[in-house]
Design a protein that fits this description.
The structure holds two protein chains of two kinds.
Chain A (H helix, E strand, L loop, with lengths): L2 H13 L15 E3 L6 E3 L15 H16 L4 E3 L7 H12 L6 E6 L5 H12 L4 E6 L5 H13 L3 E7 L6 H10 L4 E5 L11 H8 L2 E5 L6 H6 L16 H10 L6 E2 L6 H8 L9 H13 L1
Parallel strand pairs in A: 3-4, 4-5, 5-6, 6-7, 7-8, 8-9
Antiparallel strand pairs in A: 1-2
Helix pairs in contact in A: 2-3, 2-10, 3-4, 6-7
Chain B lengths: L16 H15 L2 H16 L4 H24 L9 H21 L14 H19 L14 H13 L6 H22 L2
Classes of the chains: A alpha/beta, B mainly alpha.
């Protein structure tokens, strides 16, 4: 069953659900503070890996701009990219200009080079057509010993608001932990989802302890998780947290973790971005409910 | 890259099948009807490869050099690099191969390509696959004409046909000249395999 069909199918059921979950449903998208500043950002962002790498194809760029328009309309702010993602940065910049959304976006990009990162950052800024980035992260910890001081100097000079580091798929967690303990950063980005929960052991508690914001990448394992879950019905009890679909189930699980600030699902589909953003509205699971969600998915 | 052993080929796939095939479609549209020239040139090269005259081998080498130069520039550098940063390196590989074909296949007096005596050997069969069967295989797989991959226009049929033409003769430098086509074809097929699913 397609995601949109499933959503439409379950909406009537949601309307009659008893209020058995943990808190009253908020009317607007949930947001969480960045610990180092207190600035709030919506718990759902927009990734751009693969989905926004469409080259110079005008219809595809238009479609991406439409995805961004729906993302902003639903209250989203943070968009994440990287110089590694092909044309994604330029596609984002194109979309921001079309939508006149430079003032609304929370721009999160990366530096990904083993040589001097400054020229690459400047090129990235040009692609985004941004005055400055909100967040720059050292991509996959590549040459982090050189890049981190550069980003910190940019922040000190007022040319950057936040500094971060990234990893994915559970790689280099030990190095990440060491940097989190010993260096001044604001954000960490790592893989966290219903099945990839290694970060729960050390990194997420450490992020809380150190006052670091957490971006969760690969929330759907590049779609593989959803392809697997769609073979099964969404459990009826998911309605207790206002979940109408598997994507919402997966996203609510992630963003309800106390240490996670924002999840960044990537999509090139308007229907999917709208459905994803709906996960930031309504009741969120508490710890016991989260354990139930993870246990259920592990059994499938 | 640390922990390189934990990466899969699909981890490097930074674009979707839709983006790739749309790029091919646009490229073909921009070049039409150059594809017909590519197929015709490929058929002529197949015939020349079966002719036991050294001048034919020079024409084959020069034509292949031109094809590698063009595909490196028009596809890899101009188009593919917009969705795959590695394509800039692929372009350089294609230009190096073009240079090698010119040096070893056209100007090298003692090492010039010497076609076989017209017997359709394995190399010649591979060349036929690159020029004729490869584009048809895509169509048979359900892709439209607008996404056809043709010799002299797209990398994989160019690499396969080159590999076959170079191996068809048994000339002194054939093996050296076959390395980059073989690698290019392997990388291309791996990409298409990942894109297919």
């Amino acid at each position: 069953m397609k995601r949109r069909t499933l959503l439409l199918h379950l909406l009537p059921a949601l309307a009659t659900v008893d209020a058995v979950a943990q808190s009253p449903a908020p009317a607007r998208p949930a947001a969480k503070p960045i610990p180092s500043s207190g600035e709030e950002i919506p718990v759902l962002g927009l990734g751009s890996w693969i989905t926004f790498n469409v080259g110079n194809d005008p219809p595809a760029r238009e479609r991406c701009a439409e995805v961004m328009r729906h993302f902003f309309s639903a209250g989203g702010r943070l968009i994440d990219s990287s110089p590694m993602y092909g044309s994604s940065q330029g596609v984002i910049g194109d979309g921001l200009q079309r939508l006149a959304a430079q003032g609304r976006v929370f721009s999160a990009d990366k530096v990904w080079t083993s040589s001097n990162g400054a020229p690459q950052i400047e090129a990235s800024r040009g692609h985004w057509r941004a005055a400055r980035f909100d967040l720059l992260q050292v991509h996959n910890l590549l040459a982090w010993q050189e890049q981190l001081p550069l980003l910190q100097a940019m922040k000190a000079a007022g040319r950057l608001r936040y500094v971060g580091i990234t990893t994915s798929e559970g790689r280099r967690h030990r190095d990440m932990e060491q940097i989190m303990r010993n260096h001044r950063i604001d954000f960490v980005q790592l893989t966290y989802n219903l099945l990839d929960r290694e970060a729960e052991q050390r990194l997420l508690p450490l992020a809380r302890e150190r006052g670091l914001a957490v971006l969760a990448n690969r929330p759907f394992r590049e779609g593989a998780l959803l392809r697997h879950l769609r073979r099964h019905p969404v459990p009826a009890w998911a309605a207790e947290i206002d979940c109408a679909s598997w994507p919402q189930f997966a996203l609510k699980f992630i963003v309800s973790h106390p240490a996670v600030t924002c999840a960044i699902p990537a999509t090139g589909s308007v229907a999917h971005v709208s459905e994803n953003m709906a996960a930031s509205i309504g009741r969120m699971p508490d710890e016991a409910f989260r354990r139930r969600m993870a246990a259920h998915v592990e059994k499938l | 890259m640390s922990e390189w052993w934990t990466y899969r080929p699909s981890d490097f796939m930074m674009f979707s099948p839709r983006a790739y095939w749309r790029l091919v479609e646009q490229y073909n549209g921009d070049l039409w009807p150059a594809q017909l020239v590519g197929v015709a040139a490929g058929l002529v090269l197949l015939w020349l490869a079966a002719v036991p005259r050294s001048v034919a081998s020079r024409i084959v080498a020069a034509s292949l050099a031109l094809a590698w130069l063009w595909v490196g520039w028009a596809f890899h550098w101009q188009r593919y690099a917009t969705i795959n940063w590695a394509a800039e390196y692929f372009a350089v590989v294609f230009w190096v191969q073009a240079m090698l074909l010119v040096i070893l296949g056209v100007f090298q007096r003692d090492g010039q390509l010497q076609p076989s005596a017209g017997v359709p050997n394995l190399g010649w069969t591979l060349a036929v696959c690159g020029v004729v069967l490869y584009p048809l295989a895509g169509l048979a797989a359900g892709r439209p004409w607008s996404q056809a991959e043709v010799f002299g226009v797209m990398p994989e049929p160019t690499a396969l046909a080159s590999l076959g033409l170079l191996l068809s003769g048994g000339q002194p430098y054939a093996k050296a000249l076959s390395i980059l086509p073989a690698l290019s074809f392997l990388v291309g097929m791996t990409t298409l395999w990942i894109l297919s699913g």
